[in-house]
Amino acid sequence: MRTTSEIAEAFDLGILVGNQVDITSVAISSLDVVPGCLFIAVQGEKAHGINFLSEAIASGAAAVLSDRPVKSDIPVLMHPDPRSIAGDISAFVMGTMDLGLQIFGVTGTNGKTSTVFFLHQLLLHMGVKAGLSSSAFTQINKHRVDSALTTPEAPRLHNLLFEMADADTKAAVVEVSAQALVRHRVDGLVFDVAGFTNLTRDHLDEFGTMENYLSVKAMLFTKKFSRRSVINVEDRFGEQMLDLARAESPEGSVGIGQNQDYSFEVTAAGIKITGRQELFLARDIGPLMSKNLVLAAVMLLEAGYSAKAVTAAALQIETLVPGRLQLVSETTPHIYLDYAHTPQAVELAAQELSDKYSKLVIVLGASGDRDSGKRIEMGRAAGKYANHIVVTDQHPRIEDPALIRAALIAGILEGSPANSISEIDDPALAISKAVDLVGAGGAILWCGPGHLKYREVKGKKLPFDAYLQARKALDLD
């Protein structure tokens, strides 16, 4: 707990009105306000938080911090960019770094959700009470809540960590997006171990170049945010990330890959890890998921857990990650849901399934208002491995969905004949068409929806559950 005077002094804030009051928590959304809360009112995607001040006060806000002056019956604090200090204020008020939590963070383009899921599972099966914050859901003990963002806004994340500690949790695992790093969502935190999965094309509409994108991801591996780093070195971006991490912390940064601190080999019997420590993870989960499990395991080794404990825990973990190469049912044909929305993610998932099945049909969509240049590359990637591709809509948002589909089809046509493509805008009809096309011994890869329970069309989120639609297409529900 802190007073408004203490907060104002620590962060050089102006106090417009109001007496000193006690602050016990922080919120950046009026929906998260509880009694004793400091409400941070900033510009959101559609409106400014100050428009919701009355709702925040009704919920018990004790003070407000904003970049706009406002008349209010509660104390008003001022800062030109409140979002930039929201995380540090949250840590200051709630004492986040004194909660006794061991905190793990994972960033990268693809594989973040799977890696944090594996980390969480391994910790639990080693007897460590652990909480999870991922793009799919947050979890404290057995309580799960669907996530709205890959990484919550800073006050919500700090509150979540506080709730974990209050529930006697000893470790926390956090999925960290590039947006979280540039938008101050992990400010006020220092991760005990931070991990990097990979860097492939995504978000260039926001970051412009891959070099800019890499520099944003690299923020996680600075001393400001992490004590130790584990970098998956599978290409030049991994090499650059490891160099950047070692420049910050030479003794605290390790690499996974050929000629690195750790290396691994995937076999039919499991995964052999060699290097600083050696262990064998007796799980056959395919090459795509194996590298995510390796990253999770090495992060735990670097955090001080024994190879014996990690090996034993790996035998017990769930390996089915929601929406990540998720098999819908053992009923044939097999349908796999995947969140793949980047060219590399599409290609790696398609390659893995094409090695297992005699025929592969891909259902492929792409999001509107996001890095339009990657769409042709996604189509090109799908065309390398699919016998047939059903191009459909995913999240057109406010774009013309026909133009999105056209870009995907252009990429497919670079290497596949036109008669290998079907275009069906409705994804429910698209998955049914895929079932009709695939035939015996084949599989369907549905790229895009993953774990999501909605589609965003013309600015509205419409209920849509790809898992249930896939089961319906198989006449299971």
Feature tags:
8-stranded mixed sheet, alpha/beta, globular, 3 domains, UDP-N-acetylmuramoyl-L-alanine:D-glutamate ligase, 16 helices, 6-stranded mixed sheet, Protein-Tyrosine Phosphatase, Chain A, Udp-n-acetylmuramoylalanyl-d-glutamate--2,6- Diaminopimelate Ligase, Chain: A, domain 1, about 475 residues
Radius of gyration over alpha carbons? 23 Å
Whole-number average pLDDT? 95
The major beta sheet can be summarized as:
8 strands, mixed
E-strand count: 26
Q: What is the percentage of strand-forming residues? A: 15-25%
Strand order of the largest sheet: 11-10-9-12-8-13-14-15
Number of helices: 16
Name the helicity range.
Answer: 25-40%
CATH superfamily of the largest domain: Mur-like, catalytic domain
CATH third-level topology of the largest domain: UDP-N-acetylmuramoyl-L-alanine:D-glutamate ligase
